[in-house]
C-alpha cells in the first residue's frame, strides 16, 4: 500500500483546486487580438498594471488608463445619441464581442457634446437644472437602447474633474446576458462631458476599483 505524506497530499489538492477555479471563471473572446484570460487574472493584471495618460487636445480632456486596455479614438458619431470621442477596451471581452457593435464591448467611454443637442434642452440658455435635464435625456436614451434597463442608483452630489456632477448606476441585458454600467456627467462652458463604463456583470464588479481610479484621474482643461 502506498503512503502519501500529508504535506504532499495538501500540495496536490491545492493544484487541483486552482485548476478547477481557473476553468470555471474563464471568459472567451471572438477577437484574436484578445487573449483568453480569467476574471481572476484580469483583476490581478489591473492591480499591477501601469497607468498611462490619454490627452485629447481638441476637447480639452485627459485621463489615466491601464496600459493593457486598448484605446480607440473616434470621429463624430451618434452612439446612443452621444458623441463618443474615445473608448478604452478591456483586455477581457465577452464571447459575443464584435468590434463594430459597441453594445457587445466591455469598455470605458468618454463623450463630449453641446448641451443644447440633448433632448429637452433646445433653446435653453438659462442652464437652470441643467444636470437634471441631461439626466432625463440620458435615461430616456438608455431606456430605449438597453433592454431590461433597471436603474439602481441616482447620485446628485458627486464631482467630476472637480465640478458638480450626477451619476447613475444601472443593469440591463444584451443577448440575454446581464451587464452592469455606471455613467457620470458634468457641464462646462456649454459642453456636456460624459464618462461611462459598461461590462459583463461579473467583470464589472472585479474591475470597478481600476475604473474608479480612471474616473478620479479625468480632467477637463481650465
Instruction: Determine the strand fraction and express it as a percent band.
Output: 35-45%
The CATH H-level superfamily is: Mog1/PsbP, alpha/beta/alpha sandwich
Summarize the biggest pleated sheet.
7 strands, antiparallel
Calculate the terminal CA-CA distance, rounded to whole Å: 78 Å
CATH fold title: Protein Transport Mog1p, Chain A
Give the SSE string.
HEEHEEEEEHEEEEHE
Q: What's the overall geometry?
A: globular
- The number of domains is 1
* Number of DSSP E strands: 12
Which radius of gyration do the C-alpha atoms yield? 21 Å
Structural class: alpha+beta
Give the integer mean of the pLDDT values.
80
Task: Report the top-level CATH class.
Answer: Alpha Beta
Low-confidence stretches: 1-5, 12-40
Number of helices, counting only DSSP H or I runs of 4 residues or more: 4
Strands in their spatial order, largest beta sheet: 5-6-7-11-10-9-8
Give the second-level CATH assignment, the architecture.
3-Layer(aba) Sandwich
Instruction: State the share of residues found in helices, binned by percent.
Output: 25-40%
Amino acid at each position: 500500500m502506498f503512503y502519501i505524506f500529508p504535506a504532499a497530499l495538501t500540495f496536490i489538492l491545492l493544484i487541483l483546486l486552482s485548476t478547477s477555479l481557473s476553468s470555471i471563471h474563464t471568459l472567451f473572446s471572438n477577437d484574436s487580438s484578445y487573449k483568453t484570460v480569467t476574471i481572476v487574472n484580469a483583476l490581478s493584471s489591473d492591480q499591477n498594471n501601469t497607468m498611462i495618460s490619454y490627452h485629447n487636445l481638441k476637447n480639452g480632456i485627459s485621463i489615466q488608463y491601464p496600459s493593457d486596455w486598448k484605446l480607440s479614438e473616434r470621429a463624430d458619431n451618434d452612439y446612443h445619441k452621444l458623441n463618443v470621442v474615445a473608448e478604452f477596451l478591456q483586455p477581457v471581452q465577452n464571447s459575443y464581442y464584435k468590434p463594430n457593435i459597441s453594445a457587445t464591448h466591455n469598455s470605458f467611454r468618454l463623450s463630449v457634446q453641446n448641451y443644447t443637442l440633448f433632448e429637452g434642452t433646445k433653446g435653453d440658455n438659462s442652464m437652470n437644472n441643467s444636470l437634471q435635464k441631461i439626466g432625463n435625456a440620458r435615461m430616456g436614451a438608455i431606456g430605449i437602447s438597453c433592454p431590461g434597463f433597471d436603474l439602481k442608483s441616482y447620485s446628485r452630489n458627486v464631482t467630476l474633474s472637480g465640478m458638480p456632477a450626477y451619476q447613475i448606476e444601472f443593469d440591463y441585458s444584451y443577448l440575454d446576458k446581464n451587464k452592469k454600467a455606471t455613467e457620470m456627467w458634468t457641464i462646462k462652458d456649454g459642453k456636456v462631458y460624459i464618462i461611462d463604463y459598461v461590462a459583463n456583470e461579473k467583470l464589472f464588479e472585479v474591475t470597478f476599483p481600476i475604473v474608479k481610479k480612471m474616473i478620479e484621474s479625468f480632467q477637463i482643461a481650465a
